[in-house]
Amino acid sequence: MDGLVRASDGLRRVVETVGRLACWLILPMILVTVWDVVSRKSPALREWGLAVTGGIAHSTILQELEWHLHTALFALCLGYAYIKNAHVRVDLILERLEPRARAWIELLGCLLFMLPYTALVIWFALDFTWTSWANAEASVSLIGIPHRWVIKAVLLVGLILAFLAGLAVLLRLLAYLFGRRERMDLWVVPPASGRGSPSR
């Protein structure tokens, strides 16, 4: 069981590292959004921004950049949220169960839903991203952001990270349910209060 725990910890470190770095995307997203809103209300400021950035500060580009940053932020932090037990849950039944019962439900959820679903979506996302790259897909707007395959690749990476997060949780659950109970970490199974737990 020690090998399962070590493998789980290794996967978790990868997901957490990417998630922590991706969290910083909130700052450029806020700046771009604020600049887009403010510059729309001020023609002089908009013209100044276009002149300084060589046209990059055009409203269409800014709006697409907002969407891309938001997508990257969500996709790259999805697995991190699962690792930290910060995703949305409906705990009306789970909060009344013992830890081992909650662990079994989480295990079945990983095996029957999360891992198969993310694997299936990754399979289709590979072709989705490849087709976009091969066709040099760009924005539908003439003045939009080119290289749309980049954001589609980010979605693919986010899905892979979510799969790794699910695998990390699955390995830890197996170590808990079929090994020594004291090896269980709280971050795997939601506590009775329904709130997230620290990783250690």
Structural notes for this entry:
- This protein is mostly helical and 200 residues long.
- It is built from six helices and no strands.
- Mean pLDDT is 81; it is low at 189-200.
Give the key terms.
single chain; 200 residues; mainly alpha; 70% helix; elongated
Question: What's a quick, concise take on this entry?
Answer:
With 200 residues, this protein is mainly α. The chain has helices at 2-22, 26-41, 43-53, 59-83, 99-134, 149-178.
Protein topology:
Blueprint: H1 2-22, H2 26-41, H3 43-53, H4 59-83, H5 99-134, H6 149-178
Described by strand count, sense and barrel closure, the largest sheet is: none
Rg of Cα set = 21 Å
Q: How many β-strand runs?
A: 0
Counting DSSP H or I runs of 4 or more residues, the number of helices is 6
Structural class determined from secondary elements: mainly alpha
- Low-pLDDT windows of residues: 189-200
Strand content: under 5%
Distance between the termini: 18 Å
Helix percent reads 55-70%
Mean pLDDT across the residues is 81
Following the backbone from N to C, one meets helices and strands in this order, namely HHHHHH
Q: Compute the number of structural domains.
A: 1
Global morphology: elongated
